[in-house]
What we know:
2 domains
Amino acid sequence: MYYLAVQNIFWIVLAVVFGMIAGWLLRKSSARKIQKELDNLHRKISNREKKIVSLRRDLDQCRATLKAYKADMEEACRPSLVPQLPACVPPASAFEADDLKQISGVGPALEGKLNALNIYTYEQMAALTPDVISELAETLESISGHMVQEDWIGQAQKILRSRAQQNGKQPVA
């Protein structure tokens, strides 16, 4: 009987030792997986932090460029640098502005340049003469070529005529 008790204790101790070894191996294996995942997460965080630094640097550069463009625009739009429109061009303000982008060839950038020259309406565009266009050419080189090639004046006159017809008024010449 004593022999059976010793044998049972031996098997129980052996099972406990075996269980501890198996648990230790499983924990070690699991710990490796967790450590790999943790290392991958640290690497991803590091890469994203580098990306954030890069994006912030790009943002700072964009802000600096925007500031320079704003300063250039303010300089270009100072009253002393904007030529006075002749009397043949009716005066208008930004509050009366038409959507000059309706004229084929005029996009947001060119509309902004026209507005910087105090040209806001179709009436003003229709009243431009070749002499006025050549004056404007000295201020903004790219606009005068577009005006002639794409017949902005004719388009503005056509828009004014259709507007007048819609309102039941006599068409503008």
